[in-house]
Amino acid sequence: MSVESVPPPVAKTVPTERVQHGDVVIDEYEWLRDKDDPEVIAHLEAENAYTEANTAHLAELRTAIFDEIKGRTQETDLSVPTRLGQYWYYSRSFEGKQYGVHCRCPVDPAAAGLDAWTPPELEAGAEIPGEQVLLDSNVLADGHDFFALGAFSVSNDGTLLAYSTDTVGDERYLLRFLDLRTGEQLGDEIPGTAPGATWSLDGSHVFYQTVDDSWRPDTVWRHRLGTAAAADVKVFHEPDERYWVSIGTTRSEKYLLIWVASKITSEGWMLESADPEGEFRVILPRREGVEYGVEHAVIAGEDRFLVLHNDVVDGVKAENFVLAEAPVGDPAALTLLIGHRDDVRLEDVDAFAGHLVLGYRREALSRLAVWPLTPDGYGERRELEFDLPLFAVGLGANPEWEQPTLRIGLTSFTTPTQVFDYAPDTGELLLRKEQPVLGGYDPELYEQSRDWAVAADGTRIPISLVWRRDAVQPGTAAPLLLYGYGSYEASIDPGFSVSRLSLLDRGMVFAVAHVRGGGEMGRLWYENGKTLRKKNTFTDFVAAARHLIDTGRTSADRLIADGGSAGGLLVGAVANLAPELFAGILANVPFVDPLTSILDPSLPLTVIEWDEWGNPLADPEVYAYMKSYSPYENVEAKNYPAILAITSLNDTRVLYVEPAKWVARLRAVATGDAPLLLKTEMSAGHGGVSGRYEKWKEVAFEYAWVLDTVGLGKVAPS
Fold first, then answer.
1. Which of 205, 505, 686, 690 does the annotation list as catalytic?
2. Which listed residue (421, 493, 562, 651) is catalytic?
3. What's the DSSP call for residue 9?
4. C-alpha–C-alpha distance, residues 279 and 142, integer Å
5. Are 331 and 317 in contact (CB under 8 A)?
6. Residue 212 catalytic?
7. Half-sphere exposure of 478 (CA within 13 A, CB side)
8. Neighbour tally for 624: CB within 10 Å
9. What tens digit of pLDDT does each residue of 299-342 get?
10. Is the four-CA dihedral 37, 38, 39, 45 of positive or negative sign?
């Protein structure tokens, strides 16, 4: 099939009027919203055919990249076992199978001390004594085009498993239960749940959530095992549409915690886990603009709550959060433990029987510190250090309250993910596993660094980069893929990617612009990239692109902008702001029609988003501001770079209609001859296709387009 034989789809125009705050807007493509309309499906399929025709010449390259990813991946593998009770839990992957298999094997009853916490060295191809397969996702996915595992929760005594599955992609799960002693599936089935399930201490009850019509988790239910779902008890409901509801436990398992949170306010409710039919009670009543989290710890023999919050301390708002403690019986009686710092963003505190673990950010990098608990209170904190210019570190799976080691994970752009056990008593860091990369990967061939751009207002914007030394000639403008996100205080940390090697080995540089709206540089970094400061996100990305061009790292004809979801909004806005800086725009499930979505409170997730973007329904200033940057509403008659937009028909977070409308308008209005492509996965959700081989094919499709757009389509990897 040649490109000429498939003309660009031209969406019909059906004028739809929108009137808000006296502003009249005619939207010609709003009709594409009705996915039950056969004409809409026909249009999406025509777009898919056009995209396939325009990329057919890349079939060989796509196959090569897929084979490279597959060839570097140890397909039959095991995760590092994690101890819970008297079992080691781990997951397996098998060559030729799309999904993981969850297993366990018994702990050696003769092992003692640190040996009892040293994971067994299991071989992927060998028989494992006492192995029990708990759940095989390949069996569950059989016969379905899409599969996602939601809950996977083992009861405290290790005898029961709660698990949930989604076979559509709409993030509504069917919750089921297994008796792990017999392998029998119990008769209890609960449809339409949110992902996740929390056991009571004795395993008699499970707590789960359901969502409202807007896909907002709003209700917590209690299910008594062995009873009908119709008899489940509603234990909490949040009517305010700005708030999401979740449930979990403290690490000690002593308390069940319900959390109610908007983007800027949170509230916790507690119940002793040993009393599952008791009444939840509020910990600290919500106050607009105050966020807090609670962890249970035993300090000097007493039950205490550790409270991480951003309330006012000594007359000053603790933007980057502080840590305090309080008696469990009087959570408001706070005593400050760690005060506020402008250069450190406190993010997490995890309590164990003998120590605390603090997670925080400094200089746009994640950090961990271990804080021993002594008979009198607190010992001396110690930050874990790593000899890498860029890295990401975090706690791994540590389900036990009393354990002599801490499981942590470390990665960087050049470091395959490493799993360590850290022994707080000795300070020893024990490497348990490094992500295998087949084919002779040598980290010394690759280099990572941090650079800084300067925004128009003088703000320094961090940029993280990685490249292959012998594939990028010093002093030459290299092809470069610039990724950005910049919303929800999400931080894009340096992490290793097997698939990315296919770009680096062909001479492409990968970079991340850590723009405002993200969380890399603290809470104010986020605050200065949201609501009426949202445009900083876009101009920061443009500043980063200009910096990379001006410093000779790349050139406009070799630069691709990449972003997904809210990052798709970013690259869509940048396409309007500075199309001349980019050869291409890769937009995954892009939020490119934000004003239309945020104006409609009946759409999934809209109301809770008002804290992030502002409420354009109620505020004319917010309306005008959002309209001024909305990618869809600001498409103009000018030369755009090549664009590849990828979406999913069943996405409930960013509806497929947004990129469909965007590409339709671009094709009608844009000048020039750069290809404008839309690819819709017809049986997937926000995360795209499911199954690792399908995901590799999708990555290969995107990377082949990227390489071809910057002139590397025929370049063999080093």
1. 686
2. 651
3. P
4. 41
5. no
6. no
7. 24
8. 14
9. 999 999 999 999 999 999 999 999 999 999 999 999 999 999 99
10. positive
Alpha-carbon distances, residue 429 vs 182, 421, 424, 425, 562 (angstroms): 39, 6, 9, 11, 36
- SS3 string, 117-170, reads HCCCCCCCCCCCCCCEEEEEHHHHHCCCCCCEEEEEEECCCCCEEEEEEECCCC
The amino acid that residue 259 corresponds to is W
Position 652 scores a pLDDT of 72
According to DSSP, the β-strands at 173-179 and 292-299 are unpaired
Q: What is the rounded average pLDDT of the residues 233-252?
A: 96
How many other CB atoms are found less than 10 A from the CB of residue 252?
A: 17
Contacts of residue 708, defined as CB under 8 A and 6 or more positions apart, other chains included, come to: 55, 57, 58, 61
**One-letter amino acid of 390:** L
- The answer to whether the pTM exceeds 0.90 is yes
- Contact between 191 and 182 under an 8 Å Cβ cutoff? The reply is no
Res. 268: pLDDT tops 90: yes
What pLDDT score does 691 carry?
Answer: 77
Q: In 3D, which of 676, 671, 670 has the Cα closest to residue 646? A: 676
> On the CB side of 188, how many CA atoms lie within 13 Å of its CA?
23
Helix (H) or strand (E) holding 70, with range, is helix 59-72
For 341-363, what is each residue's pLDDT tens digit?
999 999 999 999 999 999 999 99
Q: What is the pLDDT of residues 280-301, one digit of tens each?
A: 999 999 999 999 999 999 999 9
Is residue 202 within 8 A of residue 224, CB to CB? The reply is no
Tell me if residue 21 is catalytic.
no
Note the pLDDT tens digit of each residue in 549-598. 999 999 999 999 999 999 999 999 999 999 999 999 999 999 999 999 99
What is the four-CA torsion angle of 316, 319, 320, 321, rounded to 10 degrees? 70
714: which residues sit within 8 A by CB, 6+ positions away?
Answer: none
Q: Any idea of the CA torsion for 406, 412, 415, 421, to the nearest 10 degrees?
A: 0
565 in catalytic set: yes
- Residue 163 in contact with residue 134, Cβ under 8 Å? no
Cβ atoms of residues 74 and 439 within 8 Å: no
- Which residue of the set 565, 630, 648, 690 is catalytic? 565
Q: What is the pLDDT of residue 687?
A: 58
In the predicted model, is pLDDT for residue 686 greater than 60? no
